[in-house]
């Protein structure tokens, strides 16, 4: 089992506190937690974008700071939450900048197209797309960037709230695609606010709160009523139907005494 990411006592001022953990090749790790828990910062640290104050972070056994940017860009991709374009660049042209799998081509691999369905607006300008359409394009972009590594089962795919803006069909298509890529040996680390989807489509879950890890491990052990209530400060009901975990928040906030 190849270790892909190793974190030891990572601290970032006011954002992360002594984060430690190991992620192996083929893992699909979902980061769960409330707003401000440190999920985005942790992804950015692993990507080599955000420096940390203390601790160590290694990718494939080498300190993240020692990776040449050109080498890092070939194996690691990162989807951030904010993607904006003021220019009327066509989708196909935009994707062609990242399509390293074929020279001067924006051809989308069949498995990616099946999940994200971007060809239907390939000729549209980016700034005319809906939020969900733009998100699908951005997901396609990051996968194209590392597609040679993906086909070899050696990519590290970092996604910050990739389900944001997607309709329900494309949410399930995306998480199924990511599972398939992990089965080939690729490693996925993503943040999410859909607890049920994460519990059912991840290999490991990390629960974060106020910059610290509350618990981590396989979903059935980590996504428990007690852990979720500690992490999110509201009540939960968890049930299982046809091997699918269903998670529901139960009246988390009451305003009767305030109003």
The residue-averaged pLDDT reads: 93
> How much helix, percentage-wise, in residues?
25-40%
User: What is the subunit organization of this protein?
Assistant: single chain
Supply the CATH architecture.
3-Layer(aba) Sandwich
Q: What is the CATH C-level name?
A: Alpha Beta
Say what the CATH topology is: Rossmann fold
Spans of at least 5 consecutive residues with low confidence: none
> Largest sheet at a glance?
6 strands, mixed
Shape: globular
Termini separation comes to: 56 Å
SSE order: EEEHEEHEHHHHEHEHEEHHEE
* CATH homology superfamily: P-loop containing nucleotide triphosphate hydrolases
Sheet with the most strands: spatial strand order: 6-7-8-3-9-10
Helix/strand-derived category reads alpha/beta
Q: How many domains in all?
A: 1
Question: Could you tell me the strand content as a percent range?
Answer: 25-35%
| Total number of beta strands | 12
């Amino acid at each position: 089992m190849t270790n892909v990411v190793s974190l030891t006592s990572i601290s970032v001022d006011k954002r992360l506190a002594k984060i430690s953990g190991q992620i192996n090749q083929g893992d699909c790790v979902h980061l769960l937690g409330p707003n401000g828990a440190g999920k985005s910062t942790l992804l950015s640290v692993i990507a080599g974008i955000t420096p940390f104050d203390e601790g160590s972070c290694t990718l494939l056994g080498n300190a993240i700071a020692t990776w040449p940017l050109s080498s890092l860009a070939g194996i690691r991709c990162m989807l951030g939450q904010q993607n904006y374009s003021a220019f009327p660049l066509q989708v196909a042209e935009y994707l062609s900048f990242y399509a390293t799998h074929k020279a001067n081509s924006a051809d989308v691999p069949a498995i990616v197209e099946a999940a994200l369905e971007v060809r239907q607006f390939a000729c549209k300008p980016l700034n005319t797309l809906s939020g969900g359409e733009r998100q699908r394009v951005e997901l396609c972009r990051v996968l194209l960037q590392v597609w040679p590594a993906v086909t070899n089962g050696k990519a590290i795919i970092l996604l910050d709230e990739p389900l944001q803006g997607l309709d329900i069909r494309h949410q399930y298509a995306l998480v199924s695609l990511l599972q398939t890529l992990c089965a080939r040996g690729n490693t996925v680390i993503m943040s999410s606010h859909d607890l049920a989807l994460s519990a059912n489509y991840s290999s490991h879950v990390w629960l974060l709160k106020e910059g610290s890890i509350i618990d981590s491990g396989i979903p059935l052990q980590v996504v428990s009523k007690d852990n979720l209530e500690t992490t999110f400060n509201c009540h939960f009901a968890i049930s299982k139907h046809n091997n699918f975990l269903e998670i529901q928040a139960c009246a988390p906030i009451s305003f009767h005494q305030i109003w």
